[in-house]
């Protein structure tokens, strides 16, 4: 089974606006940054099929506390087939909660009953450092529910602030404070964090290998692919910001042992998410 743990998709109504905004911000920090699709669920299904990916997680981000209601509607639409039969069969249900959601525990129980298998957090979009009391409280809620967390880590190429909100040191602090946390560090915390491999390599955390070639972090991400714990590395494309097919081909060209490459491209995620 081939699994893409990290993608994004939006409604046909909101996709153009969201993509235009993010591209405008990201282009300042990453020359050549562009999209690889229209950002909608049908186009994501197409891209993953072309890449030979069997299952993929669509990772929303709650930017306001009340958006747990959107997560409920998203899961209901996915289960009912309203997003398409292929999406219902292939999308891994992923949700997000906001660190200021006072009833996050109850809301997560509801979302888990609706099939949620993964929680996405984004310190920059949610304006809360990964080791802040607000985020620690939420991480404890998710860990207690037994769900993995996929968190944006490292700097964010579309961020308007230079403040560190998900640096390797902050990741270590958060991971130490939350018992049982299964944390996936998106992008290997690599951008604007040259010490990420030195600080995080070999730790009991998961990483996904999504990155933008134009940011110059490929050597760091490649080190994680080759040297991190073999059962803690996951394939993520970050579509529509990268092509799943091109990204999988890029990783395959790094000369990893076949069993390690198979684990990265799906085996590890299949075990983590119990698919």
Written account of the structure:
Helices cover 43% and strands 11% of the residues. The protein has 275 residues and is of the alpha/beta class. The protein has a single domain, classed as Metal-dependent hydrolases (TIM Barrel, Alpha-Beta Barrel). The strands form two sheets. It has a six-stranded parallel beta sheet. A three-stranded parallel beta sheet has the order 1-2-3. β8, α10 and β9 form a beta-alpha-beta unit. α2 runs parallel beside α11 and α3 runs parallel beside α5. It is globular and about 40 Å long. The termini are close together. 47% of the residues are buried. The model has no long low-confidence stretch (mean pLDDT 96).
The number of helical elements comes to 12
Unreliable spans are none
CATH superfamily: Metal-dependent hydrolases
The residue fraction in helices comes out at: 40-55%
The shape is globular
Largest sheet: 6 strands, parallel
Strand numbers in spatial order across the main sheet: 4-5-6-7-8-9
Distance between the termini: 9 Å
By CATH, the topology is: TIM Barrel
What is the name of the CATH class? Alpha Beta
The total of beta strands comes to 9
- Mean pLDDT figure: 96
């Amino acid at each position: 089974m081939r699994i893409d743990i990290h993608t994004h998709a939006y409604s046909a109504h909101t996709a153009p606006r969201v993509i235009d905004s993010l591209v405008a911000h990201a282009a300042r920090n990453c020359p050549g940054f562009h999209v690889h699709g229209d950002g909608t669920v049908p186009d994501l299904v197409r891209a993953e099929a072309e890449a030979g990916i069997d299952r993929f997680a669509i990772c929303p981000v709650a930017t306001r506390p009340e958006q747990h209601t959107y997560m409920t509607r998203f899961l209901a639409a996915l289960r009912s087939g309203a997003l398409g039969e292929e999406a219902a069969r292939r999308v891994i249900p992923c949700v997000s909660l906001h660190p200021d959601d006072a009833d996050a525990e109850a809301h997560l129980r509801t979302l888990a009953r609706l099939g949620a298998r993964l929680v996405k957090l984004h310190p920059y979009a949610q304006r809360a450092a990964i080791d802040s009391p607000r985020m620690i409280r939420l991480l404890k809620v998710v860990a207690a529910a037994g769900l993995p967390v996929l968190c944006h880590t490292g700097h964010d190429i579309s961020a308007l602030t230079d403040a560190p909100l998900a640096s390797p040191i902050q990741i270590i602090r958060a991971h130490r404070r939350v018992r049982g946390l299964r944390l996936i560090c998106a992008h290997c915390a690599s951008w604007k964090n040259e010490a990420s491999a030195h600080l995080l390599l070999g730790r009991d955390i998961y990483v996904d290998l999504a990155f933008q070639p134009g940011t110059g972090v490929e050597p760091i991400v490649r080190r994680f692919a080759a040297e991190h714990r073999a059962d803690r590395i996951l394939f993520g494309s970050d579509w529509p910001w990268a092509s799943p097919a091109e990204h999988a081909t890029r990783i395959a060209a790094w000369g990893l042992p076949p069993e390690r490459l198979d684990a990265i491209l799906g085996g590890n995620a299949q075990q983590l998410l119990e698919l």
